[in-house]
From TrEMBL:
Homology family: Belongs to the ATP-dependent AMP-binding enzyme family.
Coiled coil: none
Listed name of the protein: Acyl-CoA synthetase
Domain spans labelled AMP-binding enzyme C-terminal: 385-456
Any one biological process term the GO annotation gives: fatty acid metabolic process
Species of origin: Bacillus pumilus (strain SAFR-032)
InterPro entries, A to Z: AMP-bd_C, AMP-bd_C_sf, AMP-binding_CS, AMP-dep_synth/lig_dom, ANL_N_sf
UniProt-recorded Gene Ontology molecular function terms: medium-chain fatty acid-CoA ligase activity
Length: 474
């Protein structure tokens, strides 16, 4: 690796690999010299090189990194911090009011104090750390799209396996310049940044995603790869952000990416290829759909990554036939190490209670999440199935379907349309493509759909909002 090669560009500075290596080692040594039995460091930071330095330094020292989300309220921050049982916490100066000495019993440093310690500790003593063979290096929180977030933990080997998969499937190398468009609090974007540094490529970070800033980065730089989520991609398509001369690989995950949006990207931008992959915080990579696969299997979430085995099972655990819907189980060397304070380690075959099916060619299709299923008069309805039909309509920018309690039916499906009023045409399209019992019984309009920090629909919040709106109309 050329020591002068640029590792990170974050809006404030351009960091070479020589500088990056020294910063990570300084961080690691500082943590090793900090006498704490519980080797966990939490940090509340915006996107930037310091975030990645603390994360990578913790991994190098054998510590567990616990990123906290600046968008959480003070109560949520304290709750997650206490749950993590971190030994110390590093907080961006502008967020110091989130904590005080009475709310947490641990060492608290401001970001400026931590930077001061790093600048004074100038000697790199060694690049070797006395750590266990496969330590837990990362504690994150699931997005909470259907309820309260849970703390999950990962061992280093799971991401090393993921790095190999990224190289084999996506073809990422040290020559790539990668744009991280979203928050590093999302596993998707954090993984994109760390894996790029692992390969020796260049990472450009946006402090905060805005379509205009992302478009400027795409059109003025030498970017070859972009990590994104569907909501970001769609907002970029609206302002023609992908119009450029050089080829670009788009790696998307995190939510259901609509067929019309994918088609628009590949049709109007022939220099762009994409990989849309299905994965979760617990399972990591599961399946992927390439641009070429999309032309043949547009509704699929793709085929399994090479080290992955997928089974779709019935309630009695027998394996489903092709095209038969059941619960999705995954066997993977990239899976997480479990949830925090969980008594038992994860099983060899894991499920996050997503429902779907495999076709005759081994491609996976999603029905929806089992615990998000609406039970309408004893009939099962997956909200995602209705949303796909709604989002295909030109009049609908974005939609979400939730189940609202009903005294007669148990639950009824309620459609929420973003920004625009639904029309008779939209209803007719739903009636034409779906069984009558799946057609939403109530329709609502919202200025902007509520999202989680990682850009997914916050279904629990949307369900609560819908219930409040409907109760007001009664």
């Amino acid at each position: 690796m050329n020591p002068d090669h640029i590792a990170i560009i974050d809006g404030e500075e351009r960091i070479t690999y020589e500088d990056w290596y020294e910063r990570v080692q300084l961080s690691a040594q500082w943590l090793q010299q900090t006498a704490h039995e519980q080797k966990r460091v939490a940090f509340l930071l915006s996107n930037g090189a310091s975030f990645l330095q603390i994360f990578a330094g913790a991994a190098s020292a054998g510590w567990t990194a616990v990123p906290l989300d600046p968008r959480w309220s003070r109560e949520e921050c304290v709750e997650k911090l206490l749950l993590s049982e971190a030994a110390l916490v590093i907080i961006e100066d502008r967020y110091l009011n989130r904590f005080d000495k009475y709310s947490v019993d641990m060492q608290v440093l401001s970001l400026s104090e931590w930077k001061g310690k790093m600048s004074r500790n100038t000697q790199v003593l060694s690049n070797k750390c006395d750590i266990e063979n496969d330590p837990i290096f990362y504690m994150g929180f699931t997005s909470g799209s259907t309820g309260s977030p849970k703390a999950f933990i990962r061992r280093q080997q799971s991401w090393i396996e993921s790095f190999r998969t990224t190289a084999d499937t996506f073809g990422i190398t040290h020559q790539d310049h990668v744009l991280i468009a979203g928050t590093l609090l999302s596993s998707h974007f954090l993984y994109g940044a760390i894996s790029t540094l692992y390969f020796g490529g260049t990472v450009t970070l946006l402090e905060k995603f805005t379509p205009v800033k992302a478009k400027k980065a795409l059109q003025t730089g030498d970017l070859t790869v972009m990590y994104t989520v569907p909501t970001m991609t769609e907002s970029l398509l609206e302002i023609d952000a992908f119009e450029r001369e050089h080829s670009l690989l788009v790696i998307s995950s995190g939510a259901d990416w609509g067929i019309p949006s994918k088609k628009q990207l590949v049709t109007n931008n022939p220099h762009v290829t994409f990989f849309d992959f299905y994965g979760t915080s617990e399972l990591s990579f599961v399946s992927y759909l390439s641009s070429n696969d999309f032309l043949q299997k547009p509704s699929s979430v793709g085929r399994p990554f090479s080290p992955i085995q997928i089974e779709v099972r019935r309630a009695d655990q027998t394996v489903c036939q092709p095209n038969e819907t059941g619960r999705i189980y995954v066997k993977s060397p990239m899976s997480f190490a479990g949830y925090l304070h969980e008594v038992r380690p994860p099983e060899e075959w894991l499920t996050v209670y997503d429902m779907g099916w495999l076709d005759e060619d081994g491609y996976l299709y999603m029905s929806g999440r089992e615990n998000g299923m609406i039970v309408y008069g004893g009939l099962n309805i997956f909200p995602e199935e209705i949303e796909r039909v709604l989002n295909e309509q030109p009049e609908v920018k974005r939609s979400v379907v939730v189940g609202v309690p009903d005294p007669y039916w148990g639950e009824i499906p309620v459609a929420i349309i973003e920004q625009r009023q639904h029309s008779k045409t939209v209803r007719q399209a739903v009636k034409k493509k779906l069984a009558a019992y799946k057609v939403p019984k109530k329709w609502l309009v919202i200025d902007q759909i509520i999202e989680t920090s990682s850009g997914k629909i916050a279904r629990a919040s949307m369900k609560q909002w819908a219930e409040e709106q409907l109760s007001c109309k009664q």
